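Cross-posting from the modeling subforum.

Setting up a comparison between two proteins and wanted a second pair of eyes on the formatting. Protein 1 (sequence, then structure tokens):
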Amino acid sequence: MKKEYIILIILIIGLIAYLGLKKDNQVHYELPTIPQVDTTRIDRVEISKADRLVVLNKGENGWTVTDKKFSANPEDIEQMIGTLKAIKLSALVSEAKDLARYELNDTHAVKVKALAGKEAVRSFVIGKTAPSHNHTFIYLDDKDRTVYQANGNFKSQFDKESADFRDKKVLEFDPAGVKKVTLEKQGQIVTLIKSQTPKTTDQEKDETKKDLIEKKPLHEESTWKKEDGSVTDQKTISDLLSSLSKLECQAFLDEDKAARLKEIQPSCKILLENDKTFILNLFNKNENQDVEGSCSYTPYAFTLTSYKAEDIVSYADKLLGIQQQDSTESGEE
């Protein structure tokens, strides 16, 4: 046998022996199995970080945040409750209590406790998101503090201020149900009324008048008109209603700033009438260039981002004829 073959065989035998010994010396561990929680029992969630504490409570009308019982965002709550229901660990990361490395130290850690009455049904501490962006570092026990990798990227669901959990919706309605719109700006007022016009098919038009009377129209067409009967811009009124139908604010104003708005006139006022009447008031921009506002849909004054408010006001301007007047005046000059 050639010398080269003998050396190769020795190397292969040595490699097999090394791999066998390495496998035998590996540390074997078993990840804890975390039981699922019956989330229908959860009626309180406490989330703390450094000197911050956020408390969410479940009441008869849904979840609220802070002792002032502000409505919490239902979508955020649903996502958070889903995470609390089932947590699955995918790896043991560290038993050395190297918490700062995983942002599980007192400065950065987000501590979560879900309660059913006085019973804590889920408790864990959240660190940073893993490099995979599909996992999160956590520990389960304050005494042990073993760091695990949990499935899912969920830190952002819990790492929030109280204000971030609030429901930002300040107006909601079905655009199809609105029957009357009144716009007021710069001393100008226009009222738009929706009229229903029966629409028939070509086949129905060819039938006798008697048949047409006996038959009901397939559906009705809506036309928005001014009080004098003239037709307004249908697309613009549709765009306005669409922009308002599910309006969310940027943030809510504190009580002092909200009280100040009651003493001044809005720069733009919009009234929407269906089974109820909603009144939206838009004021000037604040120091952050957000537009302040109030609405009868919510008791809390708020701010809208400038681009969102500008869209709404631009539709109102067009329906009021303000843009057309401005362009005419500039043309005359």
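Protein 2 (same layout):
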Amino acid sequence: MKIRSIELTNFRKFVGTVRVESIGDNVNVLVGRNELGKSTLLQAINAVIFERARSNASHVKAFRHFVNQTVPEVKLSFDIGGQSWAIHKRFAGQSGKAILTCIGGAVYEDEAAEAELQRLLGFTGGRGGGEPGIWGTLWVQQGQSLGDMA
């Protein structure tokens, strides 16, 4: 999987829309001072891949903006298997929405989008979203890498 762009709207600390585009094939580095939103950006990528748009879990509700509590949205464009895809999730509990589009091809919505995304990325779903499997070994959240092994 190659991530090509990410767009966040009203996600945690961000008001309005923030985009990172033109992500290349090689190593890409996010650089910025503390509290600029680098970890929030990575959290949004994790959310759009592993969390269900209709989830009512407290950690998904925490994606809402800190102050105005607006509904967060995340769009991720990526390449996999020689095709370009875009996933767009609106994290709004039971009225949440997921749309997965194969550029120039099929469009999947809601549960079909969640299932097809899991199939594309090779992980299985659970109640709280996808089980990352091998992906989880590559994803260490800030502040958790030195935690208690138990």
